[in-house]
């Protein structure tokens, strides 16, 4: 598929391919257009109008399941129906490789793009490396289709769904089926019930089903099928007997029709077989094969090893030169050959027929099988069909060759996020083939590092070290060149990953040592690796509280990588930007952090859907929340969380969910806040990130008055007031201080806070100083030392006012409001502490405190439903009702007689006030609140 959404053919072969869906992927990212082609009817196809009508009726329920064992004609029926329905069709023929969720959705988006051109361009950028969840991508697809219902329904057909064996795929398809937009209908064909919410959909009347009983050929349909083969020589009694003995089974009837061609005694043939489907298949396949000329029979057997067939590939396997004409002749003869494209370039055998041909080949010519697979592997490798090449090499018994193929393509899989495909390849390789290939261990190690699987990471690095000691530095050609490779330099990659492991374990000295070792191993061309090492050291400096070196190091990495267009470099640039903003925030410089994040979004475009831009949105949300700009903060947090769900690296998603929880809590949505924290708790996270999340959860508990739960959370951290606190665990120590305050253990709280203040002051961490001083002020006031309390508060306000801090103070609730009021009302002789504070800033804090705690929920109840912080206007309620009905923005503008831009603003306000990420979520939340029926 080209950038414009059209499909083209690879000029180097007969393979129809689609170019990458998504951006910035490294290495070849070929989509087989044959998987997206609605199969054409085979010779002798019998239309089945009763089933077409049943499918049409079933579409009213939105979801159709066609489920029956092999050979019941599911694909042929759906293809005939799809071609004749006059509606846009997105067809996806599935195979075992689609158990990789990244690959599944890459193909699904490409299929939908055929029916709705441009869709892939709008959502394809979400197809980055393996995300924590595919719900965000599916949500984007749902919203895109929901925005265009006036363009007519799109029919998405997922054929051969039984070949998919993946929990994440099933979960994401279930999410789609549960949230189906008005502009989409979905049909799933499978040999067995798929693990989807069928019972729930049935109970709601949202699922139509066709099963074996409906798919069996009636006597009339069987007569039409058999009549073409046997003509008038087959009596009605014989047709009825064949129908009965095959039980209306399409594959059995089709094989019988082939066997009857030219048969001297059709009636005697009918009497000759009976029994199970397998018996019928064996019997009839023998009949069909024995009736073919020797060259045709040999061609069928030799090419049965192929999953897809083209003339050129068949020639490579058979050693002949007539592959294309032979395939066309076989299709005309009705020999179970299914065309996979419009131009008759690619075919496949019917699955049952292929299985039987392979069994015959193995029985008759067992010595030929591996040679045939070897020829197929060589051709697929030459034509960049990596998955097929690896499969055929393994089937050829050449595991070393298969391992070399995996090694050559492994960096491509890392860039595309197809971790499931990589694991499938590696699990198929024998251990001895992997043992001496360090890059295969390193590829797995990068995944372990991203998932914070520290024990697995260490073991994989030990394996990589041993493999490199045995194999040395074997030649390696990186897909995007050495400058953009993370695997080309094995010793440097091992050292870098050991440095990351040491950093994740909090060992600063070991981190620095391995970083130096990695730098020493790098050559002039290892640009991306050098940036990764510098980034890792900068983050280690940050975690050690050395904010100046951290800021300089991250700024250098950001400058180096910002202009790069390869994926890993683009991700690293945004990651460095995200970390740089966090360092600047720790320094108290909110303006600098805001500028860092906004510059990042300006560089890629604020509307970009590239997953790693979600990090900048999360960073902006954190700054805007601190400045009490809650509407804008909610917008960026929602976008950031949606995008970060598509990153394998879970830290930004966890941070995004944490800030989303705080924003929701500020809006009075306690349930929504806990829901966000619940999602964060299910992520795989490093100990450092967990140390950031637990205090947020505990603060929500404290705000809701659940002190015992917060105490338990603090105890679980295992910290004590007399500890020497380290910077990475500062949030947990601050939680402990808050818990001690809630328990009136003021002495212990002040001791701990004094230690925290000393550490923050020595490292120039202004953000920490502000928060610690605010808590000290509350503790001193609670102890009755109001003079010292006001002095501590004034120190906090002096620093906070320079940079626009608000929520760090107002989130402390009524006690802080009282203390700020006391400071503001101080008598002339007591104002020495307040003279340094901007009166306007102090007045703004008091207003913010009043909004937070002076208007409890009951005071808002008359103006807004429960849990809705700000009421919807009458016009916004009108827009809400229309968008919940599935109307597009254009249609809403038409119905309300307003400009399209006005509608977009109303929709944005509705989503913001409801705390919703998309239209579907807004409608659901509105129904919960009773705003719409």
What do these coordinates show?
It is a single chain. This protein has 933 residues and is mainly alpha-helical. Helix content is 62%, strand content 4%. It is globular and about 115 Å long. The protein starts with 7 loop residues before the first strand and ends in a 5-residue tail after the last helix. The N terminus is likely disordered.
Poorly predicted ranges (pLDDT <50, ≥5 residues)? Answer: 1-29, 853-866
Residues in helix, %: 55-70%
State the end-to-end distance: 42 Å
Specify the number of helices. Answer: 48
User: Which descriptor suits the 3D outline?
Assistant: globular
Q: Tell me about the largest β-sheet.
A: 5 strands, parallel
Overall average pLDDT: 83
Percent of sequence in beta strands? under 5%
As laid out across the biggest beta sheet, the strand order is 5-6-7-4-8
Overview in brief:
It is built from 48 helices and 10 strands. It is mainly alpha-helical and 933 residues long.
What key phrases describe this protein's structure?
disordered N terminus, globular, 3-stranded antiparallel β-sheet, mainly alpha, 48 helices, single chain, 10 strands, 933 residues
Set down the secondary structure blueprint:
Layout (H helix, E strand, L loop, with lengths): L7 E2 L6 E3 L12 E2 L16 H10 L4 E5 L6 H11 L4 E5 L7 H15 L3 H5 L11 H12 L7 E6 L7 H12 L5 E7 L7 H6 L4 E4 H4 L3 H12 L5 H11 L3 H11 L5 H7 L4 H14 L3 H10 L7 H8 L4 H10 L4 E3 L7 E3 L1 H14 L4 H14 L3 H10 L3 H18 L2 H10 L2 H4 L3 H13 L3 H18 L18 H15 L3 H14 L5 H17 L3 H15 L5 H20 L3 H15 L9 H13 L3 H15 L6 H16 L3 H12 L5 H17 L3 H10 L13 H13 L3 H17 L3 H17 L3 H18 L3 H4 L3 H11 L14 H16 L2 H4 L13 H11 L4 H8 L3 H15 L4 H10 L5
Parallel strand pairs: 4-7, 4-8, 5-6, 6-7
Antiparallel strand pairs: 1-2, 2-3, 9-10
Helix pairs in contact: 5-6, 9-10, 9-11, 10-12, 11-13, 15-16, 15-18, 18-19, 19-20, 20-21, 20-23, 23-24, 23-25, 24-25, 25-26, 25-27, 26-27, 27-28, 27-29, 28-29, 29-30, 29-31, 30-31, 31-32, 31-33, 32-33, 33-34, 33-35, 34-35, 35-36, 35-37, 36-37, 37-38, 37-39, 38-39, 39-40, 40-42, 42-43, 45-47, 45-48, ...
């Amino acid at each position: 598929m080209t950038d414009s959404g059209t499909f083209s053919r690879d000029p180097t072969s007969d393979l129809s391919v689609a170019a990458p869906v998504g951006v910035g992927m490294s290495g070849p990212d070929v989509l087989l257009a044959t998987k997206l082609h609605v199969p054409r009817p085979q010779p002798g196809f019998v239309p089945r109008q009763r089933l077409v009508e049943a499918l049409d009726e079933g579409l009213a329920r939105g979801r159709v399941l066609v489920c029956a064992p092999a050979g019941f004609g599911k694909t042929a029926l759906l293809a005939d129906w799809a071609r004749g329905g006059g509606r846009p069709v997105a067809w996806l023929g599935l195979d075992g490789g689609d158990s990789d969720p990244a690959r599944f959705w890459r193909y699904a988006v490409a299929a939908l793009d055929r029916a709705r051109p441009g869709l892939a361009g709008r959502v394809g950028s979400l197809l980055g490396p393996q995300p924590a969840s595919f719900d965000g991508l599916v949500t984007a697809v749902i919203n895109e289709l929901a925005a265009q219902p006036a363009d007519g329904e799109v029919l998405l057909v997922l054929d051969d769904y039984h070949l998919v064996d993946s929990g994440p795929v099933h979960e994401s398809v279930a999410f789609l089926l549960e949230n189906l937009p008005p502009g989409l209908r979905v049909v799933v064909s499978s040999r067995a019930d798929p693990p989807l919410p069928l019972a729930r959909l049935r109970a709601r009347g949202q699922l139509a089903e066709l099963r074996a009983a409906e798919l069996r050929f009636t006597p009339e349909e069987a007569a039409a099928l058999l009549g073409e083969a046997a003509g008038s020589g087959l009596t009605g009694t014989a047709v009825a007997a064949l129908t009965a003995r095959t039980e209306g089974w399409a594959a059995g009837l089709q094989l019988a029709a082939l066997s009857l061609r030219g048969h001297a005694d059709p009636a005697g043939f009918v009497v000759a077989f009976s029994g199970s489907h397998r018996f019928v298949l064996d019997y009839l396949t023998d009949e069909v094969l024995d009736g073919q000329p020797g060259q045709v029979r040999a061609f069928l057997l030799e090419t049965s090893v192929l999953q897809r067939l083209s003339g050129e590939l068949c020639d490579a396997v058979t050693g002949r030169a007539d592959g294309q004409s032979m395939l066309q002749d076989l299709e005309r003869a009705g020999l179970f050959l299914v065309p996979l494209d419009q131009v008759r370039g690619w075919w496949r055998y019917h699955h049952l027929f292929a299985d039987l041909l392979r069994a015959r080949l193995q029985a008759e010519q067992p010595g030929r099988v591996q040679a045939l697979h070897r020829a197929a592997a060589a051709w697929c490798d030459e034509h960049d069909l990596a998955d097929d090449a690896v499969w055929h090499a393994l089937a050829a018994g050449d595991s070393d060759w298969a391992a070399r193929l995996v090694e050559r393509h492994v960096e491509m899989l890392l860039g595309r996020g197809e971790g499931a495909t990589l694991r499938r390849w590696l699990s198929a390789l024998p251990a001895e083939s992997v043992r001496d290939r360090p890059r295969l261990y390193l590829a797995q190690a990068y995944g372990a590092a991203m998932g914070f699987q520290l024990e697995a990471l260490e073991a994989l690095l030990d394996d990589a070290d041993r493999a490199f000691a045995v194999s040395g530095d074997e030649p390696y050609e990186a897909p995007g060149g050495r400058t953009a490779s993370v695997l080309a330099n094995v010793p440097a990659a091992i050292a870098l990953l050991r440095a990351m492991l040491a950093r994740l374990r909090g060992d600063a000295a070991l981190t620095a040592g391995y970083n130096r070792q990695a730098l020493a191993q790098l050559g002039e061309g290892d640009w991306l690796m050098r940036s990764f090492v510098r980034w890792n050291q900068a983050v280690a400096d940050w975690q050690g509280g050395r904010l100046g070196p951290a800021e300089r190091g991250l700024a250098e990495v950001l400058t180096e990588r910002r202009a790069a267009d390869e994926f890993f470099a683009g991700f690293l640039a945004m990651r460095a930007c995200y970390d740089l903003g966090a360092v600047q925030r720790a320094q108290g410089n909110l303006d600098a952090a805001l500028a860092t994040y906004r510059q990042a979004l300006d560089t890629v475009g604020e509307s970009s859907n590239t997953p790693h831009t979600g990090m900048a949105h999360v960073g902006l949300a954190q700054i805007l929340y601190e400045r009490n700009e809650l509407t804008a903060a909610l917008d960026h947090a929602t976008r950031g969380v949606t995008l970060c769900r598509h990153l394998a690296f879970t830290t930004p998603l966890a941070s995004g969910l944490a800030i989303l929880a705080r924003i929701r809590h500020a809006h009075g949505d306690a349930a929504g806040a806990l829901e966000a924290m619940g999602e964060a708790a299910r992520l795989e996270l490093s100990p450092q990130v967990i140390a950031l999340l637990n205090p947020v959860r505990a603060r929500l508990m404290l705000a809701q008055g659940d002190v015992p739960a917060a105490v338990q959370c603090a105890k679980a951290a295992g910290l004590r007031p007399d500890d020497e606190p380290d910077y990475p665990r500062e949030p947990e120590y601050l939680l402990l201080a808050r818990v001690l305050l809630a328990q009136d253990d003021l002495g212990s709280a002040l001791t701990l806070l004094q230690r925290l203040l000393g550490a923050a002051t020595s490292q120039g961490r202004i953000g920490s100083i502000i928060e610690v001083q605010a808590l000290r002020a509350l503790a001193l006031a609670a102890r009755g030392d109001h003079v010292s309390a006001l002095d501590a508060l004034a120190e906090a306000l002096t620093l906070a006012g320079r940079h626009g801090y608000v929520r760090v103070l107002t989130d402390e609730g009524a006690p802080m409001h009282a203390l700020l009021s006391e400071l503001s009302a101080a008598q002339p002789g007591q104002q020495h502490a307040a003279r340094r504070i901007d009166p306007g800033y102090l007045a703004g804090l008091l207003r913010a405190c009043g909004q937070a705690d002076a208007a409890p929920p009951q005071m808002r109840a008359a103006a807004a439903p429960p849990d809705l912080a700000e009421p919807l206007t009458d016009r916004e309620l009108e827009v809400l009702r229309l968008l919940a009905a599935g109307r597009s923005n254009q249609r809403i503008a038409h119905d309300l007689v307003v400009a399209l831009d006005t509608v977009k603003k109303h929709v944005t306000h509705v989503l913001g006030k409801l705390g919703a990420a998309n239209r579907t979520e807004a409608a659901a939340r509105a129904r919960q609140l009773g705003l719409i029926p």
